[in-house]
Amino acid sequence: MEDIFGSKGLLAEHHEAFEDRPGQLKMAQAVLKAFEDKRHLIVEAGTGTGKTLAYLVPAVAFAKNAKRRVVISTGTKNLQEQLMEKDLPFLHNILPGGFTSAYMKGRANYACLYRIKKADDQPVLSGLDEIRHFDKVRDWAFESETGDRAELTDLPEDLGFWPRINARSETCLGQQCPDFEPCFITRMRDRAEKADVIIVNHHLFFADLNLRGNEYGKVIPDYGAVIFDEAHLIEDIASDYFGIAVSSFQIEELARDTEAVPIPEAAPVAQLKKVLTRVRSYSDMFWSRFTQGRGREGRYPLERGLIARRSTSGEEVPTRLGEAYAALDRALSRLQSSLDVHSDSVPEAESVVRRIRQCRSDLEFIVGQKEENYVYWIERRGRGTFVRAAPVDVSGILQDRLFEKVDTCVLTSATLSTNGTFDFIRGRLGLESPKTDTLIAPSSFDYREQAIIYLPKTMPEPRSPEFTQLAAGEIMKLLGITEGRTFVLSTSFSSMNALHEIVSSRVDYPCFLQGTMSKTGILERFRETPNAVLFGTSSFWQGVDVRGEQLSCVIIDKLPFAVPTDPLVAARTRYIDEHGGRSFFEYSVPSAVITLKQGIGRLIRSTTDHGIIALLDPRLRTKGYGRDFLKSLPDARITTELSEVESHFKSHTPIAGIGNKAGKLP
């Protein structure tokens, strides 16, 4: 590792932007040791550490020397593409001996050749635009090497017919498919089988982990080690993929796909149409009888006793929803048996039967609510209704299925520690065994020189009616110092919209609002527009990189506590409390600390960046738990005086005597 990362190593010789980074070398050595000793490793590596190369180089070395495949899982597709298009090609050019790599995305990103051919005979298109778009997709699909829809750069992101022609597992015919050999999924997996290093994202990794052993679900080849970048996202993504969901869309899609099954005889087709009429009718009845959040988008907990209640005599009596569920299940059962007689001769029938069986099983699990360690909720989104179930605590699942089965798992992110320890992330993910090592890799940034943290003295509590007006006032004062060039990050859409409405009407700087265009588009506009101000919420707290003076200030309105009424958050906190813990201090505060660190991390992205971090929530100073947040902040100066902020910003030099990272304020 010294020969590669040292001041006279390979990187120094070949990388045009090489910097001697002690934290990078230290991390690379720790990663390689974890591979060699078959141990797990948690590494917090802040922006500027160079963590990507610090894990890629040991991964390549281990894969080649031990002949064990390494999977690298990223939190976003953007990072996945950066690794494949920039970092790995660079290493291919400089590392001796050579190595092979491949990337894999979720199956829904790829076109299905068989379904595209079938689409010519099915009414999947609406309007001239869709017909033109489909013609382009069809021509592309039979020329593309990968079938990855990311190649369709000149078509809209939301192609209405894409779900009807993609290669997701639930519609896959497997080896019975006539296009199995040329299939893009088959080809992708063949490339991965030959690779030393495979790049995936967390969604694909946990979807695969959940479905391992299912011939239609397993996509990623076997591996000896895995590295999780952006590992702070793992708990929520794993919870999603180890959970269960059924939607109104799903049942309608089953009905449509049943109609498309190529059964040659007229009599069974006519019978199926009658059964489908019942399925659609009972499905409408079932979904309409949910009362939670009716007419409003959002997530709402499902009450216990959904389908049956005990009478005064102790008997279980079906509810109106229970009656509708029973009728829907009978209709789906009839559809399943009517199709099953054709499964041996018609592969499409077998595929739909499998999906119906799974749908019935999932619905029974959710509405029955028999698993105590799961949380159940209904989600209303657009015209669709979803019922979902997810494990409250994934630590045991991850321990059993991942950490005890894979020799080495490396978890890294810029934000994994809280208050200087990894206790929170270890407990949430089931990595509390002595087989796990930890490291905080020192950043190469000089935060005391490059940044100042501003905590205004006179802000009221966030719930007070005057908070928004006073927050807007502080924002405008800061914009006057930086001349725009600011991210204003809010914890909710309502706060974001309110602050944007006030500030944008009173300043002359261009103000952009999240949601008015795509995330990529609004970021590009921000980078190109002098003195711009961007108002954003959750998706702009992480995975966003704007370097240079164009982003000179990050303002955060409130501490980012998770919404306590969210069904999954409420279930997690209740679970901790019922098992003798203190959920606010053991879950709510550490989670918010990690999110806050992500937001703050938007500002300093290189050794030449400088600027202001403004935290408008007074609870940092007035509440006891504020110390946990302050101790987790970068080692930058802290002040409550705007004059100190202005002086620092204009001089780019440290301000003497204004606090420290432990939060000791004047």
Would you give an account of this structure?
With 666 residues, the protein is of the alpha/beta class. Helix content is 45%, strand content 14%. A hairpin with a 5-residue loop joins β8 and β9. α3 packs parallel to α4, α19 packs across α20 and α22 crosses α23. The two termini are 44 Å apart. The C terminus is likely disordered.
Shape: globular
Radius of gyration, taken over Cα atoms and rounded to an integer in Å: 27 Å
Structural class: alpha/beta
- In percent, how helical is the residue content? 40-55%
Output mean pLDDT: 89
How far is it from the N-terminal to the C-terminal residue, by CA? 44 Å
**Spatial strand order of the main sheet:** 3-4-2-5-12-1-13
Q: What is the percentage of strand-forming residues?
A: 5-15%
Count every helix, treating DSSP H or I runs of 4 or more residues as helices.
Answer: 26
Query: What is the β-strand count?
Result: 20
Q: List segments where confidence is low: pLDDT < 50 over at least 5 consecutive residues.
A: 653-666
Largest sheet: 7 strands, parallel
